[in-house]
Amino acid sequence: MNATATAAVQATEQPSTSTTFDLGAMLMGKVSDGSYIDFGFFRLNLPQFDPIMIGGFALDLSPSKNVVFLLLAAVLCVVTMTMVGKVFRQMEAGDAPSGFANAIESVIVFFRDNVIRANIGHGADQFAPFILTLFFFILYMNLLGLVPFGVSASASLSVTAALAFLSFLWIEVAGFRALGPAGYARTIFYAPPGLSRGGQAAMLLIMTPVEAIGKLTKPFALAIRLFANMTAGKILILSLLGLLFVFAELSVARWGVAGGAVVMAAAITLLKVFVSFLQAFIFAMLTAVFIGLIRHAH
Question: For residues 242 and 120, what is the distance between their CA atoms, to the nearest angstrom?
């Protein structure tokens, strides 16, 4: 075999080393979780630990980029409330806060009066700390995804599922405490009064699975709604910016495509700021609504 034929065979057997931009790989790398944090052209690898075996199951406590930004959101919540609390402790009776503390107080009062008390009713103030924590925690996670090189931990289904599970526990425990064991059981095993025994038995067979599934669909909807909205926004922005690289080697209309992509990405980023507030508000509001519904099951 001559040298030309040998080179041709080797070229077909070896994988391509083309540096063509892969938009799909870029999107998956930015959306999926990982053991690193990208800072432009610099990648910070996070420390990885050996899994801990517990009863045959491996518990991996190694940090990921979602975990890092989730903890950062928690720290920001603590710092925010500590600063506001310090301002209120230094105030004299009758004084009103100003600046940042005044803005946070306005948000808290709005939630207390128009969301928590309006949807839960009597005894609603005991749920205010949890619902307000949900709002600020989710809001910080959403907004951190908009800063340069930031990651929105709320775009992870694991994070939103954990938040929804906590809401589910608060909802069911609140219902159990308000209704008692017998009243709480009727939220699952319900037989409408006025029917014959046969009719009540039939309704029990039909409605019990429906009511049980209904309890699970509430946290499922909370988790999927937040996850889908935050992930979709990130994918859309990255897809538009990815057009800059896709059309980088074209000689026709590449500047028009680049300009349009940048303008649209900037507009969607501004929209995502609004969506970040909206989704945090919806998650907290629906949690209050579900608590009110189960406490007043009638």
Answer: 46
